[in-house]
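Researcher: Let's do a round of design. I'm pasting the structure tokens now; please hold your answer until I've finished.
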């Protein structure tokens, strides 16, 4: 590759990296594994995703909050512009909390004060049986499929025994 072609390609690569990092800063999404997320009263952020932790909203989340194995608490005048979805935990809506979309809880409970506003549907699949159906059943089916493959491979690779005369 010639020198004249390398300079524009390096410039294009640099520009692409600079633009992607600038766009990433504007979205202000938060994703955590095992560390709680707190949205302060003066904060406004995008999507919030939490695995094995909890989310506390005092400010404004412009889109969705999704939590696996934790809970969501929306305090005072906290707002979620989109949906709040929790797997294996609960949702607590205090005082003047607002959710613009749906509130869905699998394997937990929803606690809601009288002054809260939910713009969409409220769905609550309380109890651990739902978690077992959602996560346990596919795992058991996958394990059965693997056991069937192992059984078939063993039968096909079993050495043949000559008949005694």
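Researcher: That's everything. Go ahead.
Model: Designed sequence:
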């Amino acid at each position: 590759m010639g020198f004249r072609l390398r300079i524009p390609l390096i410039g294009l690569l640099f520009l692409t990296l600079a633009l992607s990092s600038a766009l990433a800063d504007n979205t202000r999404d938060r994703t955590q594994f095992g560390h709680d997320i707190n949205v302060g009263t003066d904060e406004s952020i995008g999507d919030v995703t939490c695995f094995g932790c909890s989310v506390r909203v005092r400010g404004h989340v412009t889109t969705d909050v999704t939590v696996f194995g934790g809970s969501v608490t929306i305090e005072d005048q906290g707002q979620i512009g989109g949906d709040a979805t929790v797997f294996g935990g609960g949702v607590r809506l205090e005082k003047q909390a607002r959710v613009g979309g749906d509130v869905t809880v699998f394997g937990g409970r929803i606690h809601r004060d009288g002054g809260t506003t939910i713009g969409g549907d409220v769905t609550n699949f309380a109890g651990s049986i739902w978690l077992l159906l959602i996560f346990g059943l596919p795992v058991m089916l996958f394990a059965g499929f693997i056991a069937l493959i192992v059984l078939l491979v063993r039968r096909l690779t079993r050495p043949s025994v000559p008949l005694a005369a």
